[in-house]
Design a protein that fits this description.
- The complex is a heterodimer.
- Chain A is 19% helix and 28% strand.
- Chain A contains four helices and six strands.
- Chain A has a four-stranded antiparallel β-sheet. Chain A has a two-stranded antiparallel sheet with strand order 1-6.
- By secondary structure, chain B is of the alpha+beta class.
- Chain B folds into two domains: 12-125 and 163-320, no CATH class; 330-444, Alpha-Beta Plaits, CATH 3.30.70.
- Chain B is built from twelve helices and 19 strands.
- Chain B has helices spanning 28-34, 50-60, 68-84, 97-110, 131-136, 167-174, 187-199, 206-219, 270-277, 346-364, 407-416, 420-423; strands spanning 12-19, 40-43, 87-90, 118-123, 157-162, 179-181, 247-251, 256-259, 287-288, 293-295, 300-305, 308-312, 315-317, 322-342, 370-376, 395-404, 428-429, 439-450, 459-464.
- A ten-stranded mixed β-sheet of chain B has the order 11-12-8-7-1-2-3-6-4-19, sandwiched between helices.
- In chain B, strand 7 and strand 8 form a beta hairpin.
- Chain B starts with 11 loop residues before the first strand and ends with a strand.
- Classes of the chains: A alpha+beta, B alpha+beta.
- Chains A and B meet through strand 2, strand 3, strand 4, strand 5 and helix 3 of A and helix 9, strand 14, strand 15, strand 16 and strand 18 of B.
């Protein structure tokens, strides 16, 4: 079977946040059928390697098969923590999308099935907002 | 009020979230109260280091030290709360719950509910004045991550507060309080205290308490369980301009539905709820609160349609003998500044400016604990994971930040970026606001303390409006 490498963003959505100087990233499979694939491909070791110097401590992984989700705790990931860190993302709020850049190996069939997921469709445009003209007429 | 059965125990209790942090959507609590049935409204104002900020405000003005936005809000919603029987629980008391409660009483009188409402306050979470006594008694208050004893930073501590559990909140509700104001309190306890009060759950009802803790986790973070900050097909989530904050419909069994009021924006489905369940958790089998340990691997979700998700099957275990303590201590000074460089060669110009600045810092003998550079538009958020800069960026913002134990080098740093508008690489703009603002760094020191060192000091006081 031929396999291909695709970014995780096609298979999962994620949310991240802080606890002191650690960050957590919850990774949720769009399709519960892909949960086992995530368990196999998105290991703590690979996540640690993906982040390189960004994560100074260890990476722990917890499994939540009931939710089709994995939880990663990234120790020493926040440059001292929310109030000390000099980063714009001092609280690790977008480490979620940084993780979704990670490439995973999937079958050609899976790759084809999830090809468009995770991105706005090409024909999408924001709905026109209710024009606000400075409060004259709302 | 909650619909009652013959025995006086309600069939279902509705608890809604109204603020996820101090500064959250001011209209959200109003939508929660006016948009449909609700029994309890919970409001979270305190981030990890908010207490140190409030402590500083109280030191300047002894009448301050609480989230004053809450008083303005109560003046607005108090009549509707009293008429509809919605009771409010908020950790708005900060480091001065007494002053907050008095201000809310005055707000209630101005709003015309005098003689018709009670305001309760909970105190005893504040350990700042007790620290030396506690350390002397052998409470090390060691850092939860590093294990260092608090003694290393004791002289720089500005605030120390225990996250208290539901006990005093339940007591306040039992005394008839329409508004319960706490200082530091475990966030989910704001949500499960009303359930304990309404259903008479016992402290040994671990599964039900755990369900309450999970429910609290779902509704304490603004709209994060109802479509806010939700990644899955975010572009299809409707009307975030009037997003409905999440609310729980809980049965005495602990089974619950998470939903939002009809007609509000946002979405409650498996994806939005799951994203919030995994938000800011550690070991999912041990979600710790002062009153119960919840097992997130036991949660079963079922989509019921119409923005309703059933949350079932939750198992709990006894709480630990400890409360978490949040301590803030002064950790030096910081400032950040930006400059905007444009095409052509925006990144090259910004990088040249950065090198120039670092050379000047060295020549001036400025010593920093850290100098951090980001190029906004390329790598500010993802750092090295962003890869090489895309060719031909239309613009990039240079952002530099420094931190030092001493104030003087940070003050000098704050003066060094603006001059580059005239004296550095070309096509630069965007230095609005002038100098970078120098501010004190307040670092966070999480610790644990035995419950018996805090709980005997907790007090509830009830005031008549």
């Amino acid at each position: 079977m031929t396999t291909v490498r695709i970014p995780l963003v096609h298979l999962a959505h994620a949310r991240s946040g802080d606890k002191g100087n650690s960050a957590n990233i919850g990774v949720v499979a769009y399709d519960p059928a892909h949960y086992e694939l995530l368990v196999r491909e998105v290991t703590a070791e690979r996540v640690k390697a993906h982040f390189g110097d960004v994560v100074r401590g260890r990476v722990e992984r917890y499994e939540l098969p009931n939710l089709g989700a994995l939880n990663f705790v990234l120790h020493g990931a926040l440059d001292g923590g929310g109030t000390v860190s000099l980063r714009t993302d001092a609280q690790g709020k977008v480490l979620s999308t940084a993780l979704l850049r990670m490439e995973v190996e999937v079958s050609g069939a899976v790759a084809e099935a999830v090809r468009d997921r995770g991105f706005v469709p090409p024909d999408w445009a924001p709905e026109p907002s209710h024009e606000w003209d400075g409060g004259q007429d709302v | 009020m909650a619909r009652g059965t013959a025995e006086g125990v309600p069939e279902v209790v509705r608890v809604g979230g109204g603020q996820g942090f101090w500064g959250d959507d001011l209209e959200a609590p109003v939508r929660q109260i006016e948009g449909g049935p609700l029994d309890y409204l919970i409001l979270d104002y305190l981030a990890e280091v908010t207490m140190s900020v409030l402590r500083k405000l109280r030191n300047r003005d002894p009448s301050m030290g609480y989230a004053h936005d809450f008083v303005t809000l109560m003046e607005r919603i108090f009549p509707a709360c009293v008429e509809r029987g919605v009771r409010v629980l908020a950790n708005a008391g900060g480091v001065h719950p007494e002053a907050c409660a008095c201000a809310v009483v005055d707000a209630g009188r101005r709003a015309g509910v005098g003689g018709r409402a009670k305001v309760a306050l909970v105190r005893g979470d504040d350990l700042t004045e007790r620290l030396d006594e506690l350390l002397a008694a052998g409470h090390a208050l060691a850092h939860m991550e590093s294990g260092e004893p608090l003694a290393t930073v004791r002289d720089r501590v500005r605030s120390a507060n225990a996250y208290v559990g539901a006990g005093p909140l339940v007591e306040a509700l039992g005394a008839g309080a329409d508004v319960v104001i706490t200082g530091r309190c475990a966030d989910p306890a704001l949500a499960y205290a009303p359930l304990i009060h309404a259903f008479g759950w016992d402290s040994s009802d671990h599964d039900r308490l755990a369900a309450g803790a999970v429910g609290g986790h779902l509704i304490e973070c603004g709209a994060q369980a109802s479509g806010g900050n939700s990644m899955a097909e975010w572009w299809t989530i409707p009307h975030l301009d009037r997003v409905g904050f999440p609310l729980l419909e809980v049965a005495a069994s602990g089974e619950m539905v998470v939903t939002k009021h009809p007609g509000t924006g946002g979405r409650v489905d498996r994806a939005t709820v799951t994203e919030q369940l995994v938000y800011e958790i550690g070991d999912p089998r041990r979600f710790l609160t002062p009153d119960v340990t919840a097992d997130f691997t036991s949660i079963r979700l079922e989509e019921l349609g119409d923005d309703r998700v059933a949350v079932r099957g939750i198992r709990g275990a006894p709480a630990t003998d400890f409360l978490k303590v949040s301590i803030a201590y002064s950790a030096g000074w910081t400032a950040a500044g930006t400059l905007l460089y444009t095409w052509p060669d925006a990144v090259s110009k910004a990088r040249t400016a950065e090198r120039l600045l670092r050379t000047r810092f060295r020549r001036l003998g400025l010593r920093f604990d850290e100098v951090h550079t980001e190029f906004v538009g390329w790598n500010a958020a993802h750092g090295p994971l962003a890869g090489d800069p895309p060719a031909d960026l239309p613009e990039v913002q240079l952002r530099m930040a420094v931190r030092s134990a001493d104030r003087a080098p940070v003050e000098r740093f704050a003066r060094e970026m603006a001059p580059l508008v005239l004296n550095g690489p070309p096509s630069v703009t965007g230095y609005a606001g002038g100098r970078a603002r120098v501010r004190e760094v307040m670092a966070y020191w999480p610790a644990l303390i035995r419950k018996d060192a805090v709980e005997p000091f907790l007090e509830v006081e009830v005031l008549e409006v």
